[in-house]
Design a protein that fits this description.
257 residues; alpha/beta; 5-stranded mixed sheet; two-stranded parallel sheet; 47% helix; globular
Length: 257
């Protein structure tokens, strides 16, 4: 478990150990808002682990106020896409050695209507919109997963992305902080309509462990079934350009075509 907050991580890890009887649950520090942290995590993981069967890129921030990371990236694109992009690439050789292996990227239905603004990815020129930024980052997840599948064809590494559903977690804390009355009004309906974290994890688990899914590499899933992403999520030219721009931004030497 790669986590930013080690105290909360240890609580979760202990719960897993207790519920499953599996004592081999390891936590490591990872802050996806920091390229340095991503590189340090990958270095330690490669030095201490023998294989990597499934990588689940699950971390995210949602519609937060504009903030810039230590690498001078806008936070939502940095955490939701660039951190995962770098992490996955640094671990690709281990994923290949462990094949058949899988990469699972947690996206969102919010990718619908998103657009990758290559001329202004970090809102330096245009007014910042938390929603527009979030949609861009979630579209980036879909395109990254699709392009990764193309580049990994024939290696035994499969790639999937998914919409987990609307889940009762604190991911939406920034939205509710802007509209406190909304929290009160929506509390009961949200309790009835939102998924529990257990329910919200099911499509991720489906993509991670369902047998025979290799032929669906690059696909998009929701409610444990393959679904059609938005047209903007199937644009292979944009996917390839995003990959190349991401390589430049995170400072990778890209050897995959």
């Amino acid at each position: 478990m790669a986590c930013r907050d080690l105290i909360r991580a240890e609580d979760a890890a202990e719960y897993i150990r207790r519920c499953t009887g599996n004592g081999n649950v390891v936590i490591r520090h990872l802050n996806l808002a920091s390229l340095y942290s991503v590189r340090e995590f990958a270095k330690e993981f490669i030095a201490t682990e023998e294989r990597l069967d499934i990588l689940i890129n699950n971390a995210g921030v949602m519609m937060c106020p504009k903030c810039v990371t230590e690498d001078r990236f806008e936070t939502q694109l940095a955490v939701n896409h660039l951190g995962h992009f770098l992490l996955t690439n640094l671990l690709l050789e281990m994923l290949k050695r462990s094949s058949p292996s899988r990469v699972v990227n947690v996206s969102s239905i919010a990718h619908v209507g998103g657009k990758i603004e290559f001329d202004d990815l970090f809102f330096d020129k245009r007014p910042y919109s938390p929603l527009v930024s979030y949609k861009q980052s979630k579209l980036a997840n879909v395109l990254f997963s699709r392009e990764l599948a193309r580049r990994m064809k024939g290696t035994g590494v499969s790639s999937y992305c998914l919409h987990p559903g609307v889940i009762r977690t604190d991911l939406s804390r920034h939205i509710l902080s802007w509209f406190p009355m909304l929290k009160t009004i929506l509390y009961l309906p949200s309790m009835l309509l939102m998924k529990t974290p257990w329910q919200g994890a099911q499509t991720t688990i489906y993509c991670a462990v369902t047998e025979g899914l290799e032929s669906k590499s690059g696909s998009y899933f929701s409610d444990c079934a393959e679904k059609d992403p938005a047209p903007e999520g199937k644009d292979d030219l944009v996917a390839r350009r995003l990959w190349e721009e991401s390589v430049r931004l995170v400072g990778l030497n890209d050897t995959l075509n």
